[in-house]
């Protein structure tokens, strides 16, 4: 359950980044907006101070609006370069419109970082890589 929640948090963080890059600002058009090519992201699990106050937001994506309460952030995803060892990357046409995250087994990074975004400033520490999220196509049924 904790892993599923962390994945959903990572997807919400990345979705907020992608929606912010969309060309249309109209709420009705966000789900229809053409999403630009995505970078790869490596997501680190982190901790934040207990003084964080939950924030109520409305999220809107291709599946419609959703009102939710955001708890303490526990994931930081950084743009990442990826090189496949011993094989060529799979080629596909057009810009990717989703991310697919693969679990990682990597050592934690002892770090302390100050962040700031639309929800407010925060301090994160103890970065633990958990997933590598790669641009992905999702096809209709």
Description:
The protein has 141 residues and is an alpha+beta fold. It starts with a helix and ends in a 5-residue tail after the last strand. It has helices spanning 2-21, 27-30, and strands at residues 40-47, 55-61, 64-70, 75-80, 98-103, 109-117, 120-136. A hairpin with a 2-residue loop joins strand 6 and strand 7 (120-136). The model is unreliable at 19-36 (pLDDT under 50). The strands form 2 sheets. Strands 1, 4, 5, 6 and 7 form a 5-stranded antiparallel beta sheet that branches.
Task: Describe the structure concisely for a colleague.
The chain has 141 residues and is an alpha+beta fold. It is built from two helices and seven strands.
In helices, the fraction of residues equals: 10-25%
- Oligomerization status of the protein chains: single chain
Kindly estimate the percentage of residues that lie in beta strands according to DSSP. 35-45%
Order of helices and strands: HHEEEEEEE
Provide the residue-averaged pLDDT: 74
Rounded to an integer in angstroms, the radius of gyration calculated over CA atoms is 16 Å
């Amino acid at each position: 359950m904790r892993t599923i929640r962390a994945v959903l948090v990572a997807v919400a963080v990345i979705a907020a980044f992608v929606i912010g890059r969309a060309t249309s600002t109209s709420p009705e058009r966000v789900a229809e907006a053409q999403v630009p090519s995505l970078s790869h992201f490596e997501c680190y699990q982190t901790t934040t101070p207990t003084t964080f106050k939950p924030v109520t937001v409305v999220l809107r994506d291709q599946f419609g609006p959703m009102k939710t309460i955001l708890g303490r952030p526990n994931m930081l995803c950084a743009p990442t370069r990826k090189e496949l060892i011993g094989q060529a990357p799979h080629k596909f046409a057009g810009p990717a419109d989703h991310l697919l995250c693969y679990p990682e087994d990597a050592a934690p990074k002892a770090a302390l970082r100050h962040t700031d975004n639309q929800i407010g400033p925060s301090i994160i520490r103890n970065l633990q890589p958990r997933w590598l999220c790669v641009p992905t196509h999702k096809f209709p049924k």
